Amino acid sequence: MAEILIAGVGATDFGDHTGRTGRELFAEARSSALEKSAVPRSDVDALYYGNYMGATAERQSHQAPLMASAVGTTDLEATRVENACASGGYAVADGVRAITSGEADVVLVGGLERMTPLETEETTAALARAADELHEGRPGLTFPGAYALLADAYMERFGGSREDLAHIAVKNHANATTNPKAQFQSEIDVADVLEAPSVADPLGVLDACPITDGAAAAVLVSGEYATKHDLEPAVAITGSGRGTETLSLQERGELTRTRAAESAAQAAYDRAEVTAADVDVAEVHDCFTIAEVLALEALGFYEPGAAITAARDGETTRDGTLPVNLSGGLKAKGHPVGATGVGQLVELTTLLEGTHPNADAVPDAKVGVTHNAGGTVATAAVHVLEVAK
Amino acid sequence: MSDEIIRETSYDAWLNALEVDEGYYLRGDSRATVPPAVAGKTDELERKTLPETGMVESKTVIRVPHPDFEDAAPYAIAIVDFGPVTLTGQVTGTDPEAVETGLVVEATVLEAEASGKRFVGFRPAGEVSDR
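^ Those are the sequences you sent over. The predicted structure of the assembly is below.
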């Protein structure tokens, strides 16, 4: 893969931004990213922008030109990318592809979601549309319900308990306490998770990520551009992979594996010429506690059936052998759907370059992975980031 | 029903058949599916009788409902293995919490009051039909 460097990243705080529009939030994120990159906005060749539910939440489709204006120029190619909760990760992947192909030298990748304008039932409906409408939406399957079916199948096959899952939420909340951008900077304990009301058995409110507003952006440049302009970014994207699986769960044959993420991970590892064993730190898509388990297995960190106890055993905690979601994850940092995949890139870049408030947990980290999943992992984008040589 | 080559893969037509206990699935060269079939040439799909019963493979009790079912919560959703194909649906005719993995059910067709949309339902096998 051609050399692709992360010249600058930026993000808003994740949380409730009532009173601010999506375009304002995106402008804040991209402004911060461009400023850090020292790349003039006139050099940006293309914008790839993730957004999922703008049509519902802000009555605004066709957001790409709007966000180009928020960059301050329409003299670029602008495209909105939509793959549900993986929209941001796919925006990153499209940016990587644009530079790899030689079509672009400088790309702005970003994502935004405003979710708080909607009532809970409207949000439930909007998120349910990421599942198969005929086979899943019509019978009344909600998004938490879909992950509950995955959790039930997993625990039926491999064992594990609600308590094991609770440790994932506890870990990610603990990580978020020191991340000023996180929505929940508060600790919870296992009893809190177990006693929280059920959303869809066996998943309770505290197994689930919150409803979040937020935006994130990153400036990607080719190695050639960086050399020519004396830029010395600390982190590179060395692998990018995407994977696809059937939209409905019923067509998959196996409910305890996420093959889209397995394919995406394999493609990303192959391009980066690394293996799962080389990875020092990861930001994974924990929209529900069970999702983190499935992610760790798809990424090859654990054998099938083995990841459910990883947080409980302290292996993925801040001081574990493989810290996962040091940002707080979707669970505690928040999940502004279309921004999440880019938000993961922002967090991991700063963790690797040593500027993240939790970077002291991984002072020697050289290789990191982001894992961003759409729906019930019917789409997945995985990126390998490495400290630039 | 004898196996026949079919070209009709409409979802509504499939529900109509399921509703009168003539459920079917479509068998192609490499896999079995249910309408609306979107892969392969429809004239290569063979219409096969859906087994009368299937077994619950995974289940959940939905407490925070889909907006189409606001007054129905809690309700159970299950993924049911019918052998050649697997279906997703709402389980009625039993306490939602009593739905267990391995429960044997038959497929039926239900209608959402709020939206008027029809969808797949399941009920424990061997119960007297309410029709």
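Chain A has a mean pLDDT of 97. Chain A touches chain B through 35 residues (CB under 8 Å).

Shout if you want it in another format.
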